[in-house]
């Protein structure tokens, strides 16, 4: 690149001041600045486009590798399935060789309310208090006394 130091910039500025003149120099400097800005934006756009194309190529390569891995897994599953089918057909074809297991016994029907006192007693007191479960029976008079509105004097 061009090596521009302070002394060279001052020399260019002095020559521009003499050649262009003090009246037109600000307008020329503004024009040069806008042209340099446009050039920088163009270069940045080109760099971004190159980076995007490189990332797109990387994504394509990654997609191909994932697709090949998926195909390999699919093939291994198919071969495993064919082996399973073979062993299954061998097991089904020779039922005399392997006796059938006894079917699981079905539990006897139990009424859901059986031992309900025991089940309610197994619930911790803190849970009953939090859930609002009554733990003691109140008589009618006690209930009236508890929930009667208080008189204001």
Automatic annotation (TrEMBL):
Record field: transmembrane: none
Q: Does Transmembrane helix show up as a keyword for this record?
A: yes
What GO molecular function terms would the record report? Answer: protein transmembrane transporter activity
Keyword Kinase (UniProt): no
What does the UniProt keyword field contain? Cell inner membrane, Cell membrane, Membrane, Protein transport, Translocation, Transmembrane, Transmembrane helix, Transport
Membrane topology summary = Single-pass membrane protein
Entry GO terms, CC: TAT protein transport complex
Q: Which Pfam families match?
A: TatA_B_E
The record's Gene Ontology biological-process terms are: protein transport by the Tat complex
Specify the signal sequence span: none
**The family this protein is said to belong to:** Belongs to the TatB family.
Quaternary form? The Tat system comprises two distinct complexes: a TatABC complex, containing multiple copies of TatA, TatB and TatC subunits, and a separate TatA complex, containing only TatA subunits. Substrates initially bind to the TatABC complex, which probably triggers association of the separate TatA complex to form the active translocon.
Kindly provide the name given to this protein in its UniProt entry: Sec-independent protein translocase protein TatB
